[in-house]
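Hi everyone, sorry if this is the wrong subforum. Our group has a chain we'd like a structural model of before ordering constructs, and none of us has done structure prediction before. Sequence below.
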Amino acid sequence: MNTIKSIFTVVSASAMLFGCGTVAPILSTPIESIDNTPIKISDLTTNEKQTWGHLDIVKDTIPGMSVDKAYAEIIKGKKGKTTIVAVIDSGIDIDHEDLDGVLWTNTKEIPNNGKDDDKNGYIDDIHGWNFLGKAYNEQLELTRIVAKGDTSIPRYAEAKAKYDKTRTEALQKKQQYEQIYNSLNEADKAFAKHFKKDDYTFADIDALETTDETLNKYKGAATQMKAFGIESIQAGVEELKGAVEHFTDQLNYNYNKDFNGRTTGDNPDDFNDKPGYGDGNVKPVKKSESHGTHVAGIVAAERNNGKGANGVANNVQIMSIRAVPNGDEYDKDIAKAIRYAVDNGAKVINGSFGKSFSQQSEWVRDAITYAAKNDVVFVHAAGNDGADIDVTPNFPDDNINGNEISDTYIRVGALAPKYGSEMVANFSNYGQNNVDVFAPGAQIYSATPQNEYKTYGGTSMAAPAVAGIAALIRSQYPKLKASQVKNIILQSGLPIPLKVVVGGDANNIKPFSTLSKSGKMANAYNALVLADRLSK
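Answer:
Right subforum, don't worry. Here is the predicted structure as tokens:
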């Protein structure tokens, strides 16, 4: 890894890995028709990059979900019925300037008195519940399976093979990125010393004329780095530092068979052990634990308040349920979290999590069934392996051997802001039977802890976009059942008559219509039009 070319090839891959690369889009028109004319491709403005998922293909020539159009032409001044949306995730910064006004509050509970005032089994659950306690890092599910050493566990051999392969890859990548990071860090120090400032720019480097062979080597590297779209040498150093930390955490925690991050004192393999475990602190334990805050912002960041971002849904209360660690979630925590959400009034649940192995999948399926029986929509991210999950399992799911157990579960794939053959995000899972619909999920701008905002990508970002549509429907048309809301979202989506690249593999081309059950991408405007018709 000593050549400049190989260094910056990996730098580019690192940027893609952490959400700085290209990803995927959407469309919108009336339900009855769609214009098949290719869209003019042009660079998005800063504002368009931050709002593209809400824009309209006809009005804005950007393939968004027509959220702004829905507000302007359908919702207008209508407030609707307040709808509770549970976000089962890594915790939410409930003090965030764009979320503090849309929080669910359990008015039956007296804060901080150490009592279960409402007798729901959870003490001081004011804004939700934290099933993780103080835990942050956790193992992957395949690591837990391998650590048990019980070959009778279903899919044990598959888990062991994948564990050995992926752990070895993580070790190799850590070593690789460390080498590149050290090289780039030395370049940064050399440039800073030469220019006598830390905030030098690519323009400074371009103008550099020197006989120093080392600086010239670094200058050539910087030129290639700039070509890959990295903003600065300093940004590249930070990107690589994050990559090293990512793979270090994987080795120390996710793939460590001896690690146990559980802090709640219960047995995660016993569903009935220690009822009410966890605590009422729904905030992230670290600033870097930003996933849940980002997801909540996509659903319901306060609209038009002059700050940060707009959520898809207005008149929403966000219930925070912390159950997703830095690793794979426990089935027990997820099953309990879904039931908590249902029992405490949520009408929509967002689940931006998932894994390839599950030891107690029946617990979660039972909870999904419980949600359906209680008229709750459950929206779930399809996963980020670029895989066909009709073939490769992804949990949780809503079926047993292909037979669905819920009519209110929606699984969502991710789109990128580039209409055409590359409109499916390169990371997004897909499946004609096990994915229901696609929505904007790449390069999504939303809230992060401590009043900050960042752009992330993943099916984790696509699911809350759809959860936002579900919340809008439930707010504006509260008499519609959860099963009707699901059908409205699937039926009102926009069909795309194109063949697209899937899994980021240019040799894997499929009709967009075959990538999900609906063959469509979600559209808020169309969904509300159809909801209005059905409600009458």
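For your construct planning: The radius of gyration is 23 Å. The chain is about 35% helix and 10% strand.
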